[in-house]
User: Which sequence fits this backbone?
């Protein structure tokens, strides 16, 4: 960071969570783990009974230390990404960063469209997913929720560029990029993504209006022009979505099946059993089957809910 400046707050939060996660995976004395996580300690001490092995004297809080170490590495990486982004913004300015995010999202959208036009069943012709993605869902991000969320981020970034005179890129290019993102985001048929997009646009509009009323609109385009630009870009994207959507797209969007959300109820049982320090970040997939109340071979890797996932992995205090 320039001038030895402080780390940005998000980087500090991620670094602290990375350290805490690494501590969960670190072997500690049995007595200490028994004090902070009695059930975790009981599971570890009973794990070798059938093998007639001696009880371990050092155990980890996490019930899947290997997965927890991976999570610690992830959160350390998130911290470094925030530091790198801050340093980049100091040297190049925020508009460069916004431009990179927007360009990357439009590229992802175009590559997804390209795969659809070619009828490809492999990502870049190299990787074949273990499941069969629906038409127009295959691209750099093969999960429609991830794809829609990423394109929504790019859409909001592009709208921000549309609303400033300092973008340095012709307005029509940015508008086309926004429209492309919106169109592909809707055809991804993610119900959560379809709801997040209008909510994000609404929040952006409120934020822009507050800045304008506060007199902090230097470099912004005229209000009337801004409204037309946003309406044109978003409306164009919705038109592209209507043209590109198929019967299967609408079927997925209007699907009333919310069975996966029932996992939240089951996660509550897991949280009640491990309230203090959790089962270890990343250990959810290994531990959750003991608390699942439904038959079948479905694998739940996450809780489908951020707060519940945090409480299960890190414990209630850290989640709060």
Assistant:
């Amino acid at each position: 960071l320039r001038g030895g400046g402080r780390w940005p707050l998000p980087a500090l939060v991620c670094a602290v969570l990375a350290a805490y996660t690494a501590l969960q995976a670190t072997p500690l004395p049995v007595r200490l783990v028994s004090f902070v996580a009695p059930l975790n300690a009981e599971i570890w001490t009973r794990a070798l009974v059938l093998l007639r092995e001696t009880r371990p004297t050092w155990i980890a809080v996490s019930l899947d230390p290997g997965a927890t170490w991976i999570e610690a590495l992830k959160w350390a990486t998130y911290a470094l990404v925030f530091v790198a982004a801050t340093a980049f913004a100091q040297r190049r300015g925020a508009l460069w960063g916004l431009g990179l995010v927007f360009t990357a999202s439009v590229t992802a959208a175009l590559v997804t469209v390209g795969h659809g036009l070619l009828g490809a069943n492999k990502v870049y012709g190299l990787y074949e997913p273990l499941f069969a993605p629906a038409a127009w869902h295959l691209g750099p991000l093969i999960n429609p929720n991830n794809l829609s969320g990423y394109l929504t981020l790019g859409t909001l970034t592009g709208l921000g560029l549309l609303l400033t005179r300092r973008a340095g890129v012709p307005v029509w290019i940015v508008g086309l990029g926004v429209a492309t993102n919106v169109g592909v985001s809707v055809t991804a048929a993610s119900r959560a993504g379809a709801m997040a997009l209008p909510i994000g646009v609404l929040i952006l509009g409120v934020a822009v209006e507050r800045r304008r009323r506060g007199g902090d609109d230097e470099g912004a385009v005229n209000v009337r022009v801004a409204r037309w630009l946003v309406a044109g870009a978003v409306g164009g994207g919705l038109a592209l979505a209507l043209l590109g959507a198929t019967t299967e797209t609408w079927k997925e969007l209007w699907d009333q099946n919310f069975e996966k959300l029932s996992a939240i109820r089951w996660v509550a049982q897991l949280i009640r059993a491990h309230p203090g320090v959790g089962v270890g970040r990343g250990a959810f997939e290994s531990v959750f089957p003991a608390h699942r109340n439904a038959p079948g071979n479905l694998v739940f890797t996450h809780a489908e809910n951020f707060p519940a996932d945090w409480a299960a992995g890190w414990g209630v205090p850290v989640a709060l």
